[in-house]
Amino acid sequence: MDKVQAAAEKFAALIENQLARVERMKAEKDFIQYDKLDKIIIGVVGGDGIGPAITHEAQRILEYLLADEIQSGKIEVREINGLTIENRVKANKAIPDDVLAELKACHVLLKGPTTTPRAGDPWPNIESANVAMRKELDLFANVRPVKVAEKGIDWTFFRENTEGSYALGSRGVHVDDDLSFDFCVTTTEGTERIARAAFEYARKTGKNRVTIVTKANVIKTTDGKFLNICQEVAKEYPEIEVDDWYIDIMTAKLVDEKRRQQFRVVILPNLYGDIITDEAAEFQGGVGTAGSSNLGKRYAMFEAIHGSAPRMVQEGRAQYADPCSIIRAASMLLEHIGYTDRAEILTKALDKCMYEEKKLVITGRSDGATGAAFADYVMETIRAMR
Ligand code: IPM
Ligand code: MG
């Protein structure tokens, strides 16, 4: 077959798929209400590498904070173990079917890092479990807060999490040896819902500025649409100041000590959000300190934003891995399901242990504390604060 026609047919199939996705998005109207559920099921997904070790520590803290609710049956904490690179390779799927069914039986998930194979790895180049989970559970809002009080930094990034350059990231087309295409996807529905989530959050928390970040001057079709729709949604929130920046200058302005203090809530397409949230986390002490929530209408998933550090496991150092990022994710989970008091106390205790008191310090090696000792320290701190 003519290679142009073959590529065009692949593209046509992708279009059909995305049109069907748009219809599914339109059909899903309402957000789940946790206070209306008889029981909230929290799935704890270890992932791989250092994932199971650090996730276990966050789970202990959750179980400690929710002891009464677990006792009364209002909350169930359920371990889900199969999301490892070995199992995923065996099933040749980003998320094996049985694991996906287990995930879907929960309401919210706490997830450790999972290994993302890339070209050149010993693993087949399957799709990232993260990316697949965000798509499968339609977790469209990746919310990543970064706070450094003494520098006047108080940012909350709303990264679109299911579209942009990620939507078809593993479905690009090699036309022939000389030519390859990837695709970038923006939908009206997908953009409206992330924009609304960001503006609603700003309104609810009294944050007075929302910044829209794109590269609409060059990526005119998809970023242009993203920017236009965000600006349309902004009109429903006249009390909130809105500005828009291109991603290149925004990246620079995050290191401008004066300007950056003005940013509050930031909306971005998927790839820019991925990149800039790593930069932003660096001001707070690195990606190991940040937690991240992935919110959809039916499901929500909370995770550490760092990787699975397989080398630490190979060198026998998994017990020294830093659980702070996943513990912060656990606190975001508590907040999301309505246990705001518990979320607050956990955040306070964690900040105290990490930044103020520092009775234990984690170095990732045997000269530092283990993750288990650190989690105990956090729980003791909570006990003392109550
Ligand atoms: C993140 C990560 C993932 C992403 C990787 C692991 C696929 O970098 O959560 O930011 O690119 O989204
Ligand atoms: Mg990233």
Structural class: alpha/beta
Q: Biggest β-sheet, characterized?
A: 10 strands, mixed
Mean pLDDT: 95
What series of H and E elements makes up the topology?
A: HEHHEHHEHEEEEHEHEHEHEEHHHH
How many helices?
14
Proportion of residues in extended strands:
15-25%
Structure summary, number of beta strands: 12
List all distinct small molecules, including ions and cofactors, that are bound in this structure: 3-isopropylmalic acid, magnesium ion
What is the distance, rounded to the nearest whole angstrom, between the alpha carbons of the first and last residues? 71 Å
Q: Helix fraction?
A: 40-55%
Q: What strand order characterises the main sheet?
A: 2-1-3-12-11-4-5-10-8-9
If you compute it from the alpha carbons, what radius of gyration comes out, rounded to the nearest whole angstrom?
A: 21 Å
Shape: globular
Poorly predicted regions: none
Commentary on this structure:
This protein is of the alpha/beta class. The protein is built from 14 helices and 12 strands. The strands form 2 sheets. A 10-stranded mixed beta sheet has the order 2-1-3-12-11-4-5-10-8-9, sandwiched between helices. Strands 6-7 form a two-stranded antiparallel sheet. A hairpin with a 2-residue loop joins strand 6 (173-176) and strand 7.
